[in-house]
Amino acid sequence: MKLLLNTAHLYMIVGLIAGLYYRELTKARHFTGQSELGVVHTHVLALGMLFFLIVLAVEKQFALSAQRSLFTWFFWMYNTGLAVTVIVMTLHGTLTVLGKSSGEGIALVAGVGHILLTVGLVLFFITAGKALDAGRTPSTATAFAAQEAS
Description:
single chain, mainly alpha, membrane, transmembrane helix, DUF2871
């Protein structure tokens, strides 16, 4: 659980730095238009910090990490996807603010980042589903079955 809290904390720091970077770069360049850089801050805070705080709460309740292999794959796949996505967004936004064009390579790498994020999310839901099923005792299984039937 400490890993999830530390991960959320790291994303909070990165998100705040991203907001500061956006503000200072656009101010220094007198940039008033739209760029990817303007949404990096919120993406990191929502998809990083908030998401991992939610995962922490789910872990506390349902012991996701007991599904060791699935949990490990989810954790690293999601973090890799988010890191790639955020780096590419930052690069693309910085180039926009500097008045330079970004190539097709940036779009390709952004796509890979989003695919990794998607795979990570799918693995999260598979892990959560297995953790929920593993947590059912005979008495709660009957209650769940009756609830799902209605």
